Amino acid sequence: MPATVPRPLHHADFTPLVGRSLWAECDPEAVELELIEATPLVDRGVVDRPPFILILRSGPMALLVSATYRLHGHGFGPEPVDLIQIARPASGPPGHYYQAVFN
After folding, report:
1. Measured between alpha carbons, how far is 63 from 9 in angstroms, rounded to an integer?
2. Residue 3: pLDDT band by 50, 70, 90 thresholds?
């Protein structure tokens, strides 16, 4: 069976989900992530769609390693998204923070 090619994701796919929960498929169970931010980046014309960045947060008890996770929730996904752990913003609530950059 041929591998499934992920569909291109766009900033508009995520803007209605800001402030809502997405779920990262993990073993033994999915981890809830809050989509904190979906921000467009400066378009350098390298790809067919404008680049953007996502910031997500998990609770303090759920730590994900930097990897590709299938995210889903509220009519979105499941879609593979590369998450990288980042430092917690000084003003951010407790938890673990991640970014996904689409460029």
Report:
1. 25
2. low
Those residues whose C-beta lies under 8 Å from the C-beta of residue 67, and which sit 6 or more positions away, are 82, 83
SS3 per residue for the chain: CCCCCCCCCCHHHHHHHCCCEEEECCCCCCEEEEEEEEEECCCCCCCCCCCEEEEEEECCCCCCCCEEEEEEECCEEEEEEEEEEECCCCCCCCCEEEEEEEC
Spans of all domains in the chain? 11-102
The whole-number pLDDT of residue 50 equals 86
Q: Which residues pair with 58 in a beta bridge?
A: 33, 96
From CA 54, how far away is CA 3, in angstroms rounded?
A: 26
For residues 35 and 90, which has the higher predicted lDDT (pLDDT)?
35
